[in-house]
Amino acid sequence: MAELVLALDMLDETRALEVAREVSEYVSALKVNYPLVLSAGVDVIGKLAKIRPVVADFKVADIPYTSSLIAKIAFEAGAKAIIVHGFAGVETVKAVLDVAEEYGGEVYVVTELTSSDEFFRGVADRIAKMARDLGCHGIIAPGNRPERVKELRRIVGGMKILCPGIGVQGGKAEAVIDAGADAIIVGRSIYEAEDPKKAAEELSRLL
If DSSP states are collapsed to H, E and C, what string results for 41-109? Predict the structure, then answer.
């Protein structure tokens, strides 16, 4: 069965924690990005981790040393996994992976964004191969383009594929799961819903 990951791309810590608790029985993990961490502080990761495992979506893309420091902060704060941009290159991804191994954490590599166009496609395939060869735990693939998820699945084999872009960005949960995704990442369609718990429940049924 595929998993549902809640993306808390919010600014208000109190509301983020409320929504996380409301939908906790239907989601496998909580994804936090810079907006919430920069507004609430890095300690919000630990607070959310008491509800569900946290994926630190920092899309790390700096030099290896700086990237390793970012990863260390995320894992020490309580994150289970971190997301790194593949275009930053082998050395950066490897630096983050080395830190993750120290903390028993996971690394997911962005192959292409949901907003990317065909220009990025050849590079994305190379990034997927790099993530596979380095032994990363999975990749991030565009859930609003299931045909790309299919192509990337052929490259990464049994690695986990997490897909954002469901709902507001046009992606359909059923289509991306059929294409080979292991998890869908959904944010606004849940936390902006009149009843977030009901929205999460309905999505979980599809999976």
Answer: CCHHHHHHHCCCCEEEEEEECCCHHHHHHHHHHHHHHCCCEEEEEHHHCHHHHHHHHHHHHHHCCEEEE
Report d(CA 129, CA 158) in Å as an integer.
12
Q: How do residues 119-176 score in pLDDT, each as one tens digit?
A: 666 799 999 999 999 999 999 999 899 999 999 999 999 999 999 988 777 778 888 8
In single-letter form, the type of residue at position 124 comes to A
CATH entry, 3-206, from 3.40.50.1580, 1.20.1250.20, 3.20.20.70, 3.10.180.10: 3.20.20.70
Residue 111, Cβ density class (10 Å: 0-12 exposed, 13-18 middle, ≥19 buried): buried
Averaged pLDDT score across all residues of the chain: 94
Residue 74 tokens, joined: 């995320």
The residue type at 94: K
CA–centroid distance for 173 within its chain: 15
Residues marked active site are found at 59
3-class secondary structure, 186: strand
Least Cα distance to 203 among 15, 1, 4 occurs for 4
pTM for the whole thing? 0.94
